[in-house]
Design a protein that fits this description.
Among the domains are: 51 residues; 51 residues. Helix 2 packs antiparallel against helix 3. The protein has 154 residues and is mainly alpha-helical. The protein is elongated, with a radius of gyration of 41 Å. This is Cyclic AMP-dependent transcription factor ATF-3-like. Keywords: Coiled coil. GO terms for molecular function: DNA-binding transcription factor activity. It holds the Pfam family bZIP_2.
Length: 154
């Protein structure tokens, strides 16, 4: 009994304080439509948008503001011929600059590859020279000191 009076009291307070609250069936149909769109598009974005819209409406309702939050469409702007020409010139300058940059990057990469190849060759030649010199050193040491059997110290 107490629960019923509490519900009646909260409903009457809601009716007194509200300008317009969508009915539960309106919300259900909106949520169902949005859920269908989410499934169709394989995205949760429509549901998030609906949630944000509902939160904004609730906030506006609590602040006593109008619940209409429909944004006005932006006025369509027509570009003048000089603006169109300027835009096209900028596009062309950008295309040329982008091509120049890509060519420069390509050339830099090619030069780096050539330097790498040259250094790799030089490194392998130096390693080979090192091995030859090492073997010559071993030969010289062998000629200088004949092999003597070393006896362990007592």
């Amino acid at each position: 009994m107490e629960d019923e009076t509490h519900l009646d009291h909260s409903e009457s307070m809601l009716e007194e304080n509200s300008l317009y609250l969508p009915s539960v069936t309106d919300l259900d149909t909106d949520v169902k439509k949005t859920a269908d769109i989410c499934v169709k598009n394989n995205s949760l974005l429509p549901m998030i948008k609906l949630e944000l819209k509902s939160k904004l409406q609730l906030k506006r309702h609590r602040n006593g503001q109008s619940l209409d939050i429909d944004a006005e469409p932006k006025p369509e702007y027509k570009m003048s011929p000089s603006e169109i020409q300027r835009r096209n010139e900028m596009k062309n300058r950008n295309k040329v600059a982008a091509k120049k940059y890509r060519d420069k990057q390509r050339m830099k990469k090619y030069e780096n590859e050539m330097v790498l190849e040259e250094l790799t060759t030089k490194n392998s030649n130096l390693k080979q020279l090192y091995q030859e010199m090492l073997s010559m050193l071993m030969d010289l040491k062998a000629q200088e000191n004949p092999v003597v059997k070393a006896e362990p110290h007592p």
